[in-house]
Write a structure and sequence with these properties.
Helix content is about 50%, strand content about 10%.
Length: about 210
């Protein structure tokens, strides 16, 4: 009986903590472009990215905190609570498109995104900033200033950057739904490749920083 108790103590001491370890988290904070608008949830790029991530890095999970119609102000208002709830190591920040389509001021878009990034960094979450572009009918001056927001933020806050979420197909109508705004199911796979190229390097860097001897 005594030997049996000793074995049990050994198991609880050395095995239980390892099995209880919670996965690390990547949180997506975005709008309808990340919320599978117009298609099943499992066909969207976040779900497809989750499959890719868990096949390569089994100790990571993805939380999708995206809301259709979300603006940078909405993201700013809920980022702190989202961080405290999910405690992500990495935040994929995909906001700004709705602000741009509504003609919001460039300064307000910048300030809202900057505040989100600052709060993420205060919570020790790395940020992968995802840029967007506007159609030319919004005027050359405004579209250029809007597009410049994202690289300016990435430089000022030293975040990783994807310059354009829809890179490689943004001008091709066959990759969009009937509304001409939201990518279709075929395009979701292209978005995954764009995100994955940067995200995987961030995860590898984080792993090295966490386990420098491995």
């Amino acid at each position: 009986m005594k030997n049996f108790l000793i074995i049990l103590m050994f198991l609880f001491t050395f095995i239980a903590p390892a099995t209880a370890a919670s996965p690390k988290t990547v949180m997506v904070l975005g709008d309808s472009l990340s919320a599978s608008h117009g298609m099943p949830i499992d066909a969207g790029w976040v779900a497809l990215l989750t499959q890719r991530l868990q096949s390569k890095f089994t100790d990571y999970q993805i939380i999708n905190a995206s809301i259709s119609g979300e603006t940078t102000l909405g993201g700013r208002n809920r980022i702190k609570q989202s961080l405290e709830t999910h405690r992500p190591e990495i935040v994929i920040l995909e906001l700004g498109a709705n602000d741009g389509l509504r003609g919001a001021s460039i300064n307000s878009i910048y300030e809202n995104l900057a505040t989100i990034i600052e709060i993420c960094q205060q919570h020790n979450s790395q940020v992968l900033l995802v840029g967007m572009q506007l159609p030319p009918n919004y005027g050359m001056t405004y579209t250029r200033k809007f597009q410049a927001i994202f690289p300016q933020l990435a430089e000022n806050y030293q975040t990783r950057l994807i310059p354009f979420l829809l890179a490689g197909f943004g001008e091709k109508h066959e990759f969009f739904q009937a509304d001409g705004i939201h990518p279709n199911e075929v395009a979701q796979k292209k978005i995954v490749e764009t995100i994955w190229e940067v995200l995987q390097t961030m995860i590898k860097t984080e792993q090295i920083a966490t386990n420098p001897d491995n």
